[in-house]
Recover the amino acids of this structure.
């Protein structure tokens, strides 16, 4: 299953690079990428922003393990890219999972900004027209403080083994209809270590027409 998802992501990236090359003269895109880079590089005071949510029992989907549920969200363009996250029932309440016993569920919850105390760092390589730029290593929570207030978040875990986990993370601006796409990976053990480092390739400011290129072939 993960191999199939990885092939899809490979297609997405290829289509993205082709579409960006075709729009090489788009100054607005270049300016937007430069602004995003500057925002990411700016000094941040981590605010620990999390969108409020409530868990309704009608949104819960049972898993193979008792007391562990999926909170069903929405999908974006393809079925596997969703806002679904995982909770554990605890005395009548439902808490997002972040536990070594549940690496996939924990990785998903971190990516969707459902874990209150995100102590990971992130190292980003931003792909821009003609080159790439490194963003200084920073608290991963900064990304959500910067982007999550105005954008919806979706993710898909594409690969997992004992050494490493990989995923696609998408921020979608509904009003302007563009996305920032992060291809992320983390050593499996580092996910639960304070100061563990997530690495990410960032493809920013993908507009509506290119979203169709990226995901259109796999739209349900």
């Amino acid at each position: 299953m993960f191999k199939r998802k990885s092939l899809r992501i490979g297609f997405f990236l290829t289509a993205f690079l082709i579409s960006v090359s075709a729009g090489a003269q788009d100054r607005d895109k270049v300016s937007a990428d430069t602004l995003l880079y500057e925002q990411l590089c700016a000094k941040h005071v981590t605010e620990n922003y999390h969108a409020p949510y409530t868990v309704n029992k009608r949104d819960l989907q049972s898993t193979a393990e008792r007391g562990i549920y999926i909170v069903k969200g929405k999908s974006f363009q393809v079925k596997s890219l969703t806002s679904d996250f995982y909770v554990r029932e605890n005395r009548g309440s439902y808490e997002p999972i972040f536990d070594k016993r549940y690496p996939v569920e924990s990785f998903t919850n971190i990516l969707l900004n459902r874990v209150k105390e995100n102590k990971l760092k992130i190292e980003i390589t931003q792909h821009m027209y003609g080159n790439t730029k490194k963003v200084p290593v920073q608290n991963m929570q900064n990304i959500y403080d910067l982007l999550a207030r105005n954008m919806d978040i979706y993710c898909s875990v594409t690969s997992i083994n004992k050494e490493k986990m990989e995923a696609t993370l998408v921020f979608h601006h509904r009003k302007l209809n563009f996305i920032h796409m992060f291809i992320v990976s983390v050593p499996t053990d580092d996910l639960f270590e304070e100061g563990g480092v997530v690495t990410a390739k960032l493809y920013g400011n993908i507009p509506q027409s290119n979203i169709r290129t990226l995901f259109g072939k796999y739209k349900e």
Notes: The longest strand covers residues 164-173. The mean pLDDT is 86. Helices lie at 2-22, 27-41, 103-111, 141-147, 208-215.
